[in-house]
Amino acid sequence: MELKEVITVTNKFLVEEFEANLADITPEANLKATLDLDSLDYIDMVVVIEDNFGFKVKPEDFQNIVTFQDFYNYVTARIQQKELV
């Protein structure tokens, strides 16, 4: 899966599941602040990621994710790792 497709799928579920405004989702925007995420929202996000992309997410993976671009890069890297196995 290419980065462009990851961005499209991700933005779609962020709008649907987290009621995000698509115009606010930009690569440099802060993920937590833009989506107004709390700890329970992160759990919901893990479930949605696993359902949409088919890999397991560890909660500590979110420690280095600050922007939407960080998030897209994380998902893309994990998909590529999965494809190599």
UniProtKB/TrEMBL annotation:
MF term (GO), any: acyl binding
Keywords: Phosphopantetheine, Phosphoprotein
Domain Carrier: 1-79
Protein name in UniProt: Acyl carrier protein
Organism whose genome encodes this protein: Chitinophaga jiangningensis
